[in-house]
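Document type: protein sequence-to-structure record

Subject area: structural biology

Format: plain text, a pair of labelled lines:
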Amino acid sequence: MSKQPKYRLVAEALRREIDDLTYPPGTRLPSENDLSTRFDASRNTVRAGLNVLVTEGLITSSQGLGYEVRSNEVFELNASRFENLDFPQQGDAYSTDVKHAGRRPSQTFRVEMQPAPPAIAERLRVETASTTVLRFCHRFVDDVPWSTQATYYPIWLAEGTRLTEPGDIAEGTTRYLASLGVEQVGYFDEIDTRMPTPEEARLLEVGAGVPVLTWTRTGYSTEKPIRCTVTTFRGDLNRMNYEIGDLSARNAKA
């Protein structure tokens, strides 16, 4: 006889059935009453087991609607190609990648003058709290929140350019800056995962137990840093890859 608490046994049984598609993505689980009968357990025990799956990000809970298996279509981002000026674009890099995958991009956008947070100031090599231009995007794929992107530009670079204007830059800021003679010749990426802040959870509509993936890219000209971009992704809807070196063998037929 298992020594595990009964709510854990409920969670394990339902997890197996989600994995083997007894309950496919987008379907509702049986009611708490039905599960109580099935597992010969109290509703509180069943609810505790279901909450384990909520915390793991496998199911969602809606008041009055019960529990539903998450329906997530993962978007794969090629981080090597992102912002590569040699890659043909249909707008900015985000729109190009999403359209290339046969998906539909949309975003909201704002521009603000902001004091540089310490972590950003360090990456841009400017004084903490010195003025930066923040260009903030809230991005969607097929109307589902996908990411937020906060890009900071030092004021010495942004003044007198379209970077300070409230509208989006259709060709992408990397191409725009290159047209002004400020070419990004390299970048340094940092990637980590963590649980979302309350504001991130609200913007990205993530449930309990779903982490975010943060991708910080600092772009450089030949002389100095020219921008720092922090992209925060829903951890359940995104995957990143990089292409480095000669990958001809990867696409070769067996």
Remarks:
- Residues 220 and 226 are 5 Å apart (CA to CA).
- The helical segments are 6-19, 32-39, 43-55, 93-100, 118-124, 155-158, 173-179, 198-204.
